[in-house]
């Protein structure tokens, strides 16, 4: 077969059948898995890795490579087998070890665990969002490094390829990210939609009936259909798919969507086109029957003919040649643009520029400022010195203070507005009211290269983002969430917008730093610390209401420890320790004043980040929270949950164990008992529990 430059030999056909056999054998050996999609997608995946994508299996971090995202991560074998055949380092033994302890082939692809896996996928729809983020990042990075090059001539021009299933398309996140991709005119993105009409509940007709291609056309995508069933027989027309992929690559003004109609599990004689082959092993009899159809020995497993492997590994030489040719232009670019090359080197090494912290603002003690506003001041101050930092909000820029002053928007020029001028290489992101999509796009941006993305919304709407936030933590991505309106302190908008359970629900995610600064200077300090971390995401919880600016909160070395002594007991020997976060530090300090006036030495600990505090050694934690001081109070405008660990059996938590209400924030704090007076009373109650409240002699 030869079409438009495609050479498709008998060895290619044999390789595709080997892929199907490996998919069957691996799932059978594991006893669980998803063989059907890997079988029917075998020609498409092989075509992408062997004939379509620009990649170099000997350098999986090549800047100029195309990216491949398997959004339907349950079909992990679709990717693993191509990585094995292409020479990325996976062995046949790794394929045999599918879904077993400590293998390189876990049930779903995991970024950072297996070479060649660009992102962790499994939760459906997330991969499409990651691919959109990668496409946006590619454009932003081209703007940083090579903005003046003609289209298609820059070493930073490459393509993002994504394979998605009906499950990905059904998940709501696919709408959010696909609509934005169309709006952004991401011509460097192609999604191949495996339309096989089968999910776990068998025929998707039970729940899916919309015209998916028309939906993507309405988003502004370039759409094509390749139907391998159109003749009435099943014909895997690889040439037609190849032509569609090349047409997608040539379409640079719109993202491309290719509906590929397949039959899941082809050519299994009894289980093809059923839900049974989607997510379970075929069984020995069905595997044997299928191998007979393919002309393979039904009595052998995991057989890869040497000629087939040698033929497939030919992509290594082709990839290295493409890499070498690309490198000529890349070296010319480096010679012509040494400053931009230095920026690329710094970002690739995940290093910060010397002296960048000098740009951080400081705020005068005694003043007053909302931490969301302080965060906005930090972002604007960092803009000139950290070009890698970029982001925006889910339609809440003014509320979240996420727009760097004077920075253009990242938007096709025809969509810029009077309020937000910009262009395709701009910096300010506008996600629209698409929080979940924003989360997965931020992950894609972070995965693509060295830039540092942030995204904002109200803290209560972190619920919409949680699946993507969890994946950011799982992948250890340096994504920053700017979540404002962090408590009942937002006031009149009422309980639908007032987070109560969110702080501890987010602290429950392993690897996510939840940071709630007490004032403007602590906000600047935590931004510094977050930027110095490049191995995990961070969530800023910021206030709508103004907070006093204190002396002693600007020392980043103290703040970095997660919890530190903000105001010590007057005699240095506290009888009570009060722990506060965010806006409640003010309440803690008010309670301390009252207790000190009553002769009770009291220490106030500001704890902006529980995770950072946990990371300190035992000696430091004991220094801040002396083990011999059992009278303790924690105060936070949310549920108590994890604070018990810090206050102990004799301690008291002043918290909010119910939803909020609509009223001015000061009224809410007073009515719900989040006051200095109540915290002081709680401190006395804790002292009483310890036996320190001895009473007085009353006489006769």
Widest sheet, order of strands: 14-11-15-16-18-17
DSSP E strands, number = 24
Q: Which value, in Å, is the CA radius of gyration? A: 29 Å
Distance between the termini: 111 Å
Number of helices: 27
Overall average residue pLDDT = 97
Structural class: alpha/beta
Low-confidence regions: none
Which strand-content bin applies to the residues? 5-15%
Helix percentage range: 40-55%
Query: Biggest β-sheet, characterized?
Result: 6 strands, parallel
Backbone shape: elongated
Task: Outline the fold blueprint.
Elements: E1 2-3, E2 6-7, H1 10-30, H2 35-40, H3 42-52, E3 67-70, H4 76-86, H5 92-96, H6 126-145, E4 160-165, H7 166-170, H8 172-183, E5 189-195, E6 198-199, E7 202-203, H9 212-219, E8 222-227, H10 238-250, E9 256-261, H11 284-294, H12 306-312, H13 314-336, H14 338-348, E10 368-369, H15 371-382, E11 389-393, H16 397-400, E12 409-410, E13 422-423, E14 428-430, H17 435-448, E15 452-458, H18 462-475, E16 480-484, H19 502-507, E17 513-515, H20 520-532, E18 538-541, E19 547-548, H21 556-559, E20 564-567, E21 576-580, H22 584-597, E22 602-606, H23 610-614, H24 618-624, E23 632-635, H25 644-647, E24 652-654, H26 665-671, H27 676-689
Parallel strand pairs: 3-4, 4-5, 5-9, 8-9, 11-14, 11-15, 12-13, 15-16, 16-18, 17-18, 21-22, 21-23, 23-24
Antiparallel strand pairs: 1-2, 6-7, 10-19, 20-22
